[in-house]
Design goal:
The structure holds 2 protein chains of 2 kinds. By secondary structure, chain A is α/β, with parallel strands linked by helices. Among the domains of chain A are: 254 residues, NagB/RpiA/CoA transferase-like (Rossmann fold); 63 residues, no CATH class. Helix content of chain A is 51%, strand content 11%. In chain A, the strands form 3 sheets. Chain A has a 6-stranded parallel sheet, sandwiched between helices. In chain A, a hairpin with a 4-residue loop joins strand 5 and strand 6. The longest helix of chain A is centred in the first third of the chain and has 24 residues. Chain A is elongated and about 100 Å long. Chain A starts with 7 loop residues before the first helix and ends with a helix. By secondary structure, chain B is α/β, with parallel strands linked by helices. Chain B has 13 helices and 8 strands. In chain B, the strands form 2 sheets. In chain B, strands 2-1-3-4 form a 4-stranded parallel sheet, sandwiched between helices. In chain B, strands 6-5-7-8 form a 4-stranded parallel sheet. In chain B, strand 7, helix 12 and strand 8 form a beta-alpha-beta unit. The longest helix of chain B is centred in the last third of the chain and has 17 residues. The relative contact order of chain B is 0.14. Classes of the chains: A alpha/beta, B alpha/beta. Chains A and B meet through helix 1, helix 15, helix 17, helix 18 and helix 19 of A and helix 1, helix 2, helix 3, helix 4 and helix 8 of B.
């Protein structure tokens, strides 16, 4: 997917005045937050669970080489094929190769953000394959030719009216405003044909269990299970950070994931996949492939952004982010939006092309507070800002103003003299315009000084008191 | 025994915003601390805690200001600030200075004695003998840094409950950010304004005549937007109300 992250300010402004988007965002926001809060409250000790989750991920990341090898060996022992993809291009060519060898014409997909990250749909379509998304949200945005705007609710930016219109265009169904169950039934009918015709199924994986070579897949629609049982070939596509050591650990992580993501106690479908169909089994594919993607992750393992690799893609930081809730996911310009995306995207596509992302955040800290694996997102965003500053990526008048102010603040006597002078000369009340400023006063009045600074008034008062003594 | 032994010596860190734009908040803080039995001093070596530099990636300026602040404030029993976010920055100094062991140690010692004003009065001194009157319906904005970094939520409410005539009505979304965010508010003005408007809608639905808060940054932003929209709702720092010094709202004094 081509990034438009460098256009964040323009895209955010446009999003703020997009009525459909605003309606969709308002509709979604409260639901996510309230459901998660209720699920967390129902759980006996969610804080302990979070801490356990953090430790599992930290331990795994500290020994990732060992667990990856163990996982790969376990997959291969069951007859699966393991492919290592250092970057997106390598992953695309591995997938293409698998499809070609299978003589595939139709590929069905479960929702996978790594698939979005490597741009798998475009690559397969270019090679003449038909690619069908089977998660309802992904299917909707595939029809709309749009990228997902949320990592677990890809079509959250669409209103029901827009979806009805899309379905009417593509399915030839009536162009009227219809209820959600009717739309779901229609999508199911269309997709059922695709499931049965598909040669290859591609899914993501939520957790990869090293001890057994099992992939844990969490879904709510059951489409994932059809993708991995009906076609002849099943391919799992996952980042190398998805490892956990044991099935017990996977259970802990699933508890954290579903509560944080959708506020459920357990997802409707929680599937444990360990290879292709065995001789005595009725269902399942003939071939099973595991594609493990690096794409910058092993570099993060060794730098100050390692904590980001704990992320389990629950999307909760998006749901609790005031900026995400105001502009939606597309404004961020690439695959991963919101707080987790603002940290991850610069790691994958570079800091130069994403310079707004770390800055478009109020550092309110709510994302860190709810993150199931306690990623210090605001700190990581601050670190990215420091890297930008070091590399001279922050320019313009605001940068100079900040430097000038920093210089002055380090000279207390001069600072107090100058601020007292400003306070004395300044008009009172609130300004509708300030010199050299457009950012504040375009929408807000600026409360002005009140004739004196505190420091000046305080020392004057102290002098008076000495005189009276 | 020294008569002052039981009276803690407070270094008041005024914060740059209060110093320049709302000196009354500083005087209100002094009055409250003195009522609670403290000796208050205001060292002249202070300017700004360095938060804007820290949050903008200019770590060398942030470290220099951290060291300046440590030198100015470390001789006191406690450092008290009428701001959750600035107090949070002082609490972060040990991390900021992590690579300089001697300074990190000094930062650590300072951080342990650093408190936001309402939290200091309630949590450290156990004081709530507020003597003030404010006969109005008000609402309270929890600033994010105070709320999440320092756990400030009940402290200002416990003190406000003692203000005669004051009727506190809570916002629906007390945990939502107001959109100030330091330099965020000028880098992304439309976004920042949208968040302010959401906050203001919430404030207005409470029927409050005034919004109170513990951080002047958020309050300037909210007040500035209220003023631009011609809203009759006034904004005050919570210290002004607690000290009985809430006169003209922020940005309201006559030119």
């Amino acid at each position: 997917m081509k990034s438009t992250a460098h256009l964040f300010p323009e895209q955010a402004r446009a999003a703020l005045t997009d009525e459909n988007l605003q309606a969709a965002l308002r509709f979604a926001k409260g639901g996510f937050i309230d459901k998660r809060a209720a699920a967390v409250a129902r759980y006996p000790d969610f804080e302990t669970l979070r801490e356990r989750g953090r430790r599992i991920k930290d331990h795994t990341l500290a020994h990732l080489d060992v667990y990856l090898e163990r996982f790969a060996a376990a997959v291969e022992a069951r007859g699966g094929h393991v492919h290592w993809a250092p970057d997106a291009a390598a992953a695309r060519s591995i997938l293409l190769d698998i499809c070609r060898r299978a003589g595939a014409r139709t590929v069905i997909k479960g929702k996978t953000m790594v698939g979005e990250e490597i741009g798998v749909n475009a690559a397969l379509e270019e090679a003449g394959l038909e690619v069908v998304e089977t998660d309802l949200g992904e299917y909707i945005i595939q029809l709309a030719k749009e990228p997902p705007s949320h990592i677990i609710a890809p079509a959250v930016h669409k209103t029901r009216a827009q979806i009805c219109k899309l379905f009417a265009e593509h399915h030839g169904s009536p162009d009227t405003l219809r209820e959600a169950p009717e739309l779901v039934a229609e999508a199911r009918r269309v997709l059922r044909e695709k499931f049965l015709a598909a040669d290859v199924g591609i899914t993501g994986g939520n957790f990869l269990v090293a001890e057994t070579g099992t992939v844990v897949l969490v879904t709510n629609e059951g489409n994932g299970d059809l993708c991995l049982t009906l076609p002849r070939v099943h391919v799992v596509l996952a980042g190398i950070e998805k490892l956990v050591p044991t099935l017990d650990d996977a259970a802990t992580m699933v508890r954290l994931l579903v509560r944080s993501a959708t506020g459920q106690d357990i997802s409707t479908y929680t599937t444990f996949i360990t290879g292709a169909r065995r001789q005595d089994e009725a269902d399942g594919p003939d071939e099973y492939h595991m594609v493990l993607l690096d794409n910058g992750r092993s570099r993060m393992l060794g730098d100050e952004f390692r904590e980001m690799l704990r992320c389990i893609r629950c999307g909760s930081c998006l749901n609790h982010c005031p900026v995400y809730n105001a502009v939606g996911g597309h404004a961020y310009g690439w695959v991963y939006p919101g707080p987790m995306g603002s940290v991850l995207t610069p790691q994958i596509i570079g800091l130069d092309a994403t310079k707004d992302l770390p800055n478009a955040c109020t550092l309110n800290g709510r994302c860190q507070e709810i993150c199931p694996v306690k990623i210090p997102l605001p700190d990581l965003l601050r670190r990215l800002r420091a890297l930008q500053f070091e590399r001279g990526l922050i320019r313009g008048p605001q940068c100079w103003a900040l430097r000038l102010w920093g210089w002055l603040a380090r000279r207390p006597a001069l600072y107090h003299g100058l601020t007292a002078l400003i306070a004395r000369l300044s008009p009172r009340g609130a300004a509708r315009r300030l010199p050299l400023d457009s950012g504040w006063t375009q929408s807000r009045d600026f409360p002005l000084p009140q004739r004196t600074t505190f420091q000046r008034a305080w020392s004057r008062q102290a002098k008076e008191e000495r005189r009276h003594d | 025994m020294n008569a002052n032994a039981a009276r803690p010596r407070i270094g008041l860190f005024v914060t740059c915003l209060v110093d320049l734009l709302r000196p009354g908040v500083g005087f209100a803080a002094v009055k409250l601390l003195e009522s609670a039995g403290c000796i208050v001093e205001v060292p002249g070596g202070q300017t700004c805690c360095g938060q804007p530099a820290y949050n903008s990636g200019d770590l060398s300026a942030a470290r220099a200001l951290a060291k300046q602040t440590i030198q100015a404030m470390e001789s006191y029993d406690y450092v008290v600030l009428p701001s959750g976010s600035c107090a949070g920055t002082l609490r972060d100094y040990p991390r900021l200075l992590a690579v300089e062991p001697v300074w990190r140690q000094r930062a650590q010692e300072l951080a342990e004695r650093t408190f936001e004003l309402t939290s200091f009065l309630v949590d450290v001194l156990g004081w709530d003998a507020v003597d003030a009157e404010f006969p109005a319906t008000v609402t309270y904005h929890d600033s994010c840094a105070g709320l999440r970094q320092l756990g400030i939520k009940q402290q200002p409410r416990r003190l406000l409950a003692k203000v005669a005539g004051l009727d506190l009505r809570e916002l629906r979304e007390t945990e939502d950010c107001c959109g100030f965010g330091g330099t965020f508010c000028v880098k992304y003005p439309e976004l920042s304004t949208r968040l302010a408007d959401d906050k203001i809608a919430d404030i207005e639905q409470t029927g409050a005549r005034a919004v109170l808060g513990g951080d002047l940054g958020c309050l300037l932003h909210i007040a500035g937007r209220l003023h631009r929209r011609g809203s009759p709702v006034k904004a005050y720092h919570v210290a002004e109300v607690l000290a009985g010094m809430a006169d003209q709202g922020i940005g309201e004094d006559k030119p």
